[in-house]
Design brief:
heterodimer, A: mainly beta, six-stranded mixed sheet, five-stranded antiparallel sheet, 11 strands, B: mainly beta
Chain lengths: ~110, ~110
């Protein structure tokens, strides 16, 4: 959706390196930000999310950071593995936290 | 818990024909979403239900698309008549509330020829 910008569109890293994907949103009232992983031919799966009352959330090798002032949030994957290869989508809601808008996606390739 | 069920998995129709998709959300999930995902793009929200009421349908092409969730559980999405550009995967998702991550179904891949 036009309210969520996601960069980069493609990202290639070597196994073991870190990967960072960034998203910006437009509605300052948004307070919930999920990240989804979609493997080829499969459904999007929620991998991590963050609410606006915290600045960072971590789950093993995955972390999300949120800067509400700048209206951007990022996904960080450390010690990447080939199975991390997929398309990653960020999302942010509009209008009283309904109407979830997705970014255009980032195709991550982790080279063994 | 059982996931979000969708049917059919695949559908091929000719342009100007009609098609309907069905979704059964996770039990107890009040919020249900229909998304359209064109190849290479992110999911685009078509309509969002809270129980049996429509919360948002601003991106639903209402001249040809319709959706209902009569009893606040299952939902159907209909396209009538279909156009070539409607070829996409139609994803249903559900969540406990409107401000939480949705769980997606496997989707219906529609091809309009």
């Amino acid at each position: 959706g036009e309210n969520v910008e996601q960069h980069p569109s493609t990202l290639s890293v070597q196994e073991g390196d870190s990967a960072v994907i960034k998203c910006t949103y437009s509605d300052s009232a948004s307070n919930y930000f999920p990240w989804y992983k979609q493997e080829l031919g499969k459904r999007p799966q929620l991998i991590i999310d963050i609410r606006s009352n915290v600045g960072e959330k971590k789950d093993q090798r995955i972390a999300v950071t949120l800067n509400k002032t700048a209206k951007h949030f990022s996904l960080h994957i450390t010690e990447t593995q080939p199975e991390d290869s997929a398309v990653y989508f960020c999302a942010a809601p509009r209008y009283n936290n309904n109407d979830m808008r997705f970014g255009a996606g980032t195709r991550l390739t982790v080279k063994p | 818990e059982a996931g979000v069920a969708q049917s059919p998995r695949y559908k091929i129709i000719e342009k100007r024909q009609s098609v309907a998709f069905w979704c059964n959300p996770i039990s107890g999930h009040a919020t249900l979403y229909w998304y359209q995902q064109i190849l290479g793009q992110g999911p685009k929200l078509l309509i969002q239900f809270q129980n049996n009421g429509v919360v948002d349908d601003s991106q639903l092409p209402k001249d040809r698309f319709s959706a209902e969730r009569l009893k606040g559980v299952d939902s159907t999405l209909k396209i009538q008549p279909a156009k070539l550009e409607d070829s996409a995967v139609y994803l249903c998702a559900s969540s406990l509330g409107s401000s939480s991550g949705g769980t997606f179904g496997s989707g219906t891949r529609l091809t309009v020829v």
